[in-house]
């Protein structure tokens, strides 16, 4: 039997790869991790993977990064936790730092439209396939299907995603246990920057848009460290680069403090995720031993999949803008469902096709 230490190179290779090609935000990252970890490598069962997805919804911080950390912890203990998380974050941090350097030097963002033109339709198809596979394991009863539909409807109506997730968990637990049992400009320095992003990583639930509100309140309005335009550019960089969206912090850190600022901001925003997963990771298997807690997790899981469906729909509307993008999405979907082609190759292929089409 292989030792846990022997699993570390494999974890490093996988998450360095995903950190380099995982465009599209948390929903896309989760889909690509499911493809690699459940279907290809069989490191986890689909049920175990879903439990970890649910667990990431219950703690603050970047969900897909926390999922990578959870997988590393499950595979190789504390060293795996560090290796998986660091390797998922590192490529994105390096790419964003390079973009920030170009932004400071040339005064604008590098052109990425052609790259994303081809990548987005493929990502939409990857998420659809993952949703199909995960929902077959997660939606185990008619009641859970109803919870998923309710969560979907509430999300469409604009109810806060955290309220939807926790509400779904509580409702599922209740149903199952009752029916089936018995200020002004501030001087900039690295320490306040670190503490600000440490706070952000410790309390933020939700999407990159929640991060935007949080950053604007302090960095733009209270301390005047950034302009509105710089903040929007930082958010855009987090969206258009692979890996965690929270590398927006890396970009901001570079603008404010160069390479050291980028490193400090990155460490601050991601450090809480490692701590939260280290504390909560060992508890996830135990949750299943208790009926009410397991029911709560089931509700959280189906609500999370409903939110992924909303994101997929929004991504699809933004990605499928003309005949070539529709054709790429259909082709990617066919290759995924018919031949189970590796999603990484599809993303790379989509990027190449997008660059070719946009430059014709």
Please provide a written account of the structure.
- The chain is an all-alpha fold and 360 residues long.
- The protein has one domain.
- It is built from 15 helices and no strands.
- The termini are far apart.
Essential attributes:
mainly alpha, 15 helices, 360 residues, globular
Structure described in brief:
The protein has 360 residues and is mainly alpha-helical. The chain has helices spanning 8-21, 26-40, 46-57, 63-106, 113-138, 142-156, 161-179, 190-203, 208-222, 228-240, 248-280, 284-287, 291-319, 323-339, 343-358. The chain has one domain (5-181, 279-358).
Topology:
Elements: H1 8-21, H2 26-40, H3 46-57, H4 63-106, H5 113-138, H6 142-156, H7 161-179, H8 190-203, H9 208-222, H10 228-240, H11 248-280, H12 284-287, H13 291-319, H14 323-339, H15 343-358
* Uncertain stretches of 5 or more adjacent residues: none
- Provide mean pLDDT, rounded: 85
Total number of strands: 0
Order of helices and strands: HHHHHHHHHHHHHHH
Q: Helical amount among residues, as a percent range?
A: over 70%
Count of helical regions: 15
Rg, nearest Å: 20 Å
How many structural domains does the protein architecture include?
1
Query: What is the end-to-end distance?
Result: 54 Å
| % residues in beta strands | under 5%
Shape type: globular
The structural class is mainly alpha
Main sheet characteristics: none
């Amino acid at each position: 039997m292989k030792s846990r230490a022997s699993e570390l190179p494999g974890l490093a290779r996988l998450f360095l790869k995903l950190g380099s090609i995982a465009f599209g935000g948390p929903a896309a990252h989760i889909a690509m991790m499911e493809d690699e970890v459940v279907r290809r490598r069989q490191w986890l069962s689909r049920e175990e993977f879903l439990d970890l997805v649910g667990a990431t919804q219950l703690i603050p911080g970047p969900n897909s990064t926390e999922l990578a950390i959870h997988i590393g912890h499950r595979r190789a203990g504390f060293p795996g936790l560090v290796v998986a998380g660091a390797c998922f974050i590192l490529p994105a941090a390096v790419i964003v730092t390079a973009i920030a350097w170009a932004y400071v030097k040339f005064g604008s963002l590098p052109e990425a439209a052609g790259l994303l033109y081809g990548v987005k339709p493929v990502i939409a198809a990857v998420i659809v396939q993952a949703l199909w596979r995960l929902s077959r394991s997660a939606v185990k009863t008619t009641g859970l299907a109803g919870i998923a539909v309710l969560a979907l409807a509430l999300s469409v109506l604009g109810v806060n995603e955290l309220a939807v997730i926790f509400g779904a968990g509580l409702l599922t637990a209740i149903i199952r246990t009752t029916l089936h049992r018995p200020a002004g400009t501030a001087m900039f320095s690295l320490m306040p920057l670190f503490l600000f992003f440490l706070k952000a990583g410790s309390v933020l639930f939700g999407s990159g848009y929640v991060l935007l509100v949080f950053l604007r309140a302090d960095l733009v309005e209270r301390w005047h460290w950034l302009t509105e335009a710089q903040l929007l550019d930082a958010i855009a960089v987090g969206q258009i680069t692979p890996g965690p969206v929270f590398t927006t912090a890396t970009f901001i850190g570079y603008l404010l403090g160069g390479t050291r600022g980028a490193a400090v901001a990155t460490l601050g925003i991601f450090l809480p995720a490692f701590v939260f997963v280290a504390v909560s990771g060992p508890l996830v298997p135990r949750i299943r031993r208790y009926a009410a807690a397991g029911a709560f997790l089931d509700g959280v899981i189906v609500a999370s999949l409903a939110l992924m469906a909303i994101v997929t729909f929004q991504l699809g509307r933004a990605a499928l803008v003309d005949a070539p993008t529709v054709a790429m999405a259909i082709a990617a979907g066919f290759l995924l469902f018919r031949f189970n082609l590796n999603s990484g190759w599809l993303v790379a292929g989509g990027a190449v096709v997008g660059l070719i089409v946009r430059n014709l």
